[in-house]
Amino acid sequence: MNSSTWLRPLRASFLALALSGLGGGACAAAQAAPSLASAQQTEAVILTRSALLALDQANKTGNYTVLRDLGSSTFHANSAAKLSEVFADLRRQNVDMSATLAQPLSFNPQPAVDAKGLLRVAGAVPLGARVLYFQIAWAREAGAWRIYGIVVTASETTP
C-alpha cells in the first residue's frame, strides 16, 4: 500500500501537521535517498517506536505537550491543542499503540535521510485486529533527532 492510499481519508488539518510535505512527494524523495547503514537502521527503529509511544501516551492522557516538546523547532509551531485536534480521530478509535514496542515494524520504503537532511520513515505495524500506518520525519537539531512531522492512522485488518 502506498502512502497516498492510506493518507487519502485524512482531514486537511491532519495533513497540515505533516509540515513541509510528509505526503507522497516526500516518500518519493525518501525512496531516492540512499538507505541507512545498519546502526542507523537500528536508530530509525528506536526513534519510530519512541515517537509512536509518545503519541500513544498523549492520546491516553489528552496531554500533547510532551509530544510537542519532543519536536523540532518547526514542529513547535503546533500547539498542544492543535495536536489534540489532529489526533482526535485516532484517540476516538481507542488505538493502543503500546504494542508497537513488541511488534515488528514494516518500513516501506526503508528509512532514509533525504536531500533536506530529514530522516524519514514510513510503514506499518500490526496491532491485533488493526494495522497502524505511520509517516514520521525527524530533523537534526542540537545533535539529536527531533520530530519534524508525524502522520499516524489505523485501520481494521480484513480477514
Tell me about this structure.
By secondary structure, the chain is α+β, with helices and mostly antiparallel strands. 38% of the residues lie in helices and 24% in strands. The chain has seven helices and five strands; from the N terminus they run αααααααβββββ. Strands 1, 2, 3, 4 and 5 form a five-stranded antiparallel beta sheet that branches. A hairpin with a 2-residue loop joins strand 4 and strand 5. The chain starts with a helix and ends with a strand. Residues 1-33 have low confidence and may be disordered.
Order of helices and strands: HHHHHHHEEEEE
Beta-strand percent range: 15-25%
N- and C-termini, Cα separation: 17 Å
Radius of gyration, whole Å:
14 Å
User: What is the makeup of the main sheet?
Assistant: 5 strands, antiparallel
Count of helical regions: 7
Mean of the pLDDT scores?
Answer: 81
Structural class: alpha+beta
Q: Can you tell me the residue ranges where pLDDT is under 50 for at least 5 consecutive residues?
A: 1-33
Q: Please estimate the helix content.
A: 25-40%
Work out the number of β strands. 5
Based on Cα principal axes, name the global outline: globular
